[in-house]
Amino acid sequence: MDIIKNPLIKKAYASPSLRQNIVNKGTMFLYCDYAGFASRNVYGAACCTVYNRTVNVAAKKLPVDRDLGSNYGEMLAIALGLETLIAELSERQPKIAVIFTDCSRISRILAQDRFAHPQNEQGRNELLAALADLNRLFPDVDVQIKYIGKHKHNNYLHKLAHNAAREAALS
Length: 171
Prior knowledge:
- By secondary structure, this protein is α/β, with parallel strands linked by helices.
- It has one domain: 2-Layer Sandwich (Nucleotidyltransferase, domain 5), CATH 3.30.420.
- It is 45% helix and 24% strand.
- Strands 3-2-1-4-5 form a five-stranded mixed beta sheet, with helices on both faces.
- A hairpin with a 4-residue loop joins strand 1 and strand 2.
- Helix 1 packs antiparallel against helix 6 and helix 3 runs parallel beside helix 5.
């Protein structure tokens, strides 16, 4: 993506904490987000990938026919991030990949074994399987899924994913 033309990338590059992620050669950062419009019954997911002075955004409309909750949607966004990561790892060689999500419950969902909502169990199982596949294909890459927390505010890279998820849902 052209750093000069996108205002959010320009703002990210101007922010010292985000610029260090953009120019980093050892760690790939992926910002994942989900957007759902239950009243219109449309949903989207996106992932902003940042590595070695490149910023790319992948987004897709989700084939969901009803609102299954934001936790499930965020897991679908992380799954898109894992798909994107696998494609990127075939060309790039980071030592670490950090996947950021704004789902505060993600670490609990990945660790729990009983669920009140079956879609969360299904999403968790799909994420664990995708992580196992990624680890089998690229065992030397340390993949971490982290809650973005308070770093979400004024994070223009996450905003890129957020906007792309909304656009994908509404397209």
